[in-house]
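Encode chain A's predicted structure.
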Amino acid sequence: QVQLVESGGGLVQPGGSLRLSCAASGSIFNIWDMGWFRQAPGKQRELVATMSGGGTAKYADSVKDRFTISRDKAKNAVYLQMNSLQPEDTAVYYCNAGGVLTGSGFRNDYWGQGTQVTVSS
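Encoded structure for chain A:
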């Protein structure tokens, strides 16, 4: 059983910063991609940023140059540094592990429980 636990959400003023963290636990041999998605009220879940096991990052156009994703493969962890936050960044942010090999086999997707990010003055 693999669990993803997120932390770091909260309330921040426009222009502020937050850092999200996510750690995967379980009998994990390898995680291919890790990343962050978000879902605002009334909207579909959307990609924010992902990073491959080789370190290649991909960002949504709306967060490029403001958000930075990083990984610690030894800790099975992924981070999201969010700068210059705007009200439109308000959403529940979900950690995702895409492609996980464990002692029980391979599974394509694991999700965290989500952490709320609210940008408001």
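The radius of gyration is 14 Å.
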